[in-house]
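Trying the structure run again after the queue cleared.
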Amino acid sequence: MTLPDVDATTAVQMIHDREISITELVEAAISQIEVNDPKLNAVVVKDFNRARETARIAENRRTSGEGGRLLGLPITIKESFDVSGLPTSWGVTSMSGNVPASSAVAVKRLEGEGGVVLGKTNVPTFLDGLGALNEVYGRTLSPLGAHLSPGGSSSGSAVAVRAGFSFLDLGSDLSGSIRHPASFCGLFGHSPSLGLVPQRGHSLFGRVAPFDMSTPGPIARSARDLALALEVISGPDDDLSPSLVGRLASSRHEVLRDYRILVLDSHPLVPADDEVSSTVVEFGRRLASAGAKVVDGASIVPPLDASTENYMRLLGAALSTGQDDATRTKLSLLDAELGRERGMRGNFLRGAIFSHSEWLESQERRIGLRWQWKDVFRAYDAVICPAAPITGVTHEEVDAGTVKIDGVDIENDNLIAWASVAKSADLPATVIPFATSRGGRPIGIQIIGPFMEDLTAIRLGVLAGEGGLAPSYANVIAPPYGVV
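Done. Tokens:
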């Protein structure tokens, strides 16, 4: 059979209604990967034999009347998540032989609802970068053009979904790792509220503590698919680390005219491409025309410069785990050379050598930000802003470490400024595709919602699609893959 170009929600309904065979659907997905993935290198760990057996079991479950919210749905998993019997390396050569005996909690939940795991998708080394390149698996290319990076670090995740290899992928987001690939590949993605989805099984070097600020989340072809996946993977980890809530809070609103929305189109620390800024403004205009209350948020939200700077310090601290004495001494010398001229990289560096008391000070600011945002979300329901300040990035720009925004060289590390708006206070953020740049690249919109009210942000994306204000679905890109 031909793999249907539909979203996960539709595919699940087709399976339920017996319009398609589960075994044939999974076989079609496997064939799609075998034929087309050599051109893209997205699914780097394949598990086809187990997928076929899982599909057979799912077919029997359907025949006997058993259900499952994802029964028979072909899915993929970011390489950094543990899947029993498959390697988890994070793109690190020394870890390529690491084969966990059990799967991550989020993976178990997807499988428990009938999801059929086809394999694992590529990442940058240590999940650090705007594109997947590592010595274990090589580089992943965008289906939009071989010279383009799909974004990172859930790079293969986005490519697998947009190229039609899987209907959903489980990614993770610390500093835009779901949101950037979703934006650059024209997809839907969701970075959940911190603590909503258990992290256990998403770590390296045997660490058991949750990685601060990182959140597992879905990449999909529609906003309603994000809700479907989130409902499956969210909730307490009963074995060890309970999430902060026992169930997913309902969306505040079911119609657009009830939404109260803030618009942010500029960041004080990093410029945004003119096309990106104008896209956000246009989305706000369309929402207002549909009856939503839309207000400029620049003077209403907590100061973006201070929140981003604090986020960078916490990010530096989070990523410094395990550094040896020599590395710490080197970083301390670099930090001393910076003096008062911090910038984003300087704040990251400061965090990397934090004392515990310094970390507690930044943590105090972080919780304070969360309370400030709580006050904002008493009067408003969502914030719309850029998912990224650029329309995309080439492999050459990834390797060089800089991009041009309106003719100005910007370090790639600074591109996470917009990602930090939500992450600085652990807020949920949904990305939806909205427009196409003059150069043919997708431009995504970020929708930030109240803490632990993820469905309020996702629902706005659903309603925008249903109302014709934004795309409701990201179609599969088939070969020959374009050159944009």
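The domain at 8-233 is CATH 3.90.1300.10 (Amidase signature (AS) enzymes). Worth checking whether this holds up in the mutant runs.
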